Amino acid sequence: STYIRYLINSLRKKVIFLSPNIAGNLSSPFLMSILMKNQNSILVIEDAEELLVSREQESNSAISMLLNLTDGLLGASLGIQVICTFNTHLTKIDKALLRKGRLKSLYKFEPLSIPKSKALLTKIGKGNMNVLAPMTIAEIYNMEEKECKLISDNVSIGFKNQVAQVA
Q1: What is the full DSSP assignment across 97-130?
Q2: Which of 73, 83, 106, 107 fits a 20 to 30 Å CA distance from 90?
């Protein structure tokens, strides 16, 4: 998400965000009219695993529309670029999406090495932070955030075992 925000701000194009559920209906007249009115824009679909899943495993008509939008006649006429994020292995993604000419860029976000983590921290004005292990971009940009921890189930809330005293 951090990288997508950076990319969008750098490109200075109109951006359309679609939830994966809505993106599954790319061929609907409503969505098609939105795309026609927003030519040369960027379509962002985060957490798009269900949309991108291989048609060999299950029926998925949305992939055909996505292929037309990115590499077919529709894509050539609308000039829309598509960014999809997913958290699944590439073997589960439809092979047609991964072919040369269709997929322009694929990036797996892994933790940055210690030198790269330090360099990014310096660039964003946090060079005084101590780096002991590789860090993700999210960890770097949120270093000062408190970590959420699960509280034990044994902790009671309320008036358990409290005795009221009346004067």
Answers
A1: GGSTTT--------PBPHHHHHHHHHHTT-TTS-
A2: 73
Determine contact, residues 34/16, Cβ cutoff 8 Å.
yes
Contact 141, 124 (CB under 8 A): yes
The amino acid sitting at 26 is: L
* Tokens at 146, concatenated: 């408190």
Residue at 11: amino acid letter: L
Q: How far is CA 130 from CA 2, 116, 119, 127, in A?
A: 22, 13, 12, 8
Residue 93 carries which DSSP code?
A: B
- Supply the pTM of this predicted model: 0.70
Q: How far is CA 102 from CA 71, 96, 97, 112, in A?
A: 6, 8, 6, 28
Compute the 3-state secondary structure of the chain and give helix, strand, coil in percent, each to the nearest 5: 40, 10, 50
88: which residues sit within 8 A by CB, 6+ positions away?
49, 53
CB 117 within 8 A of CB 127: no
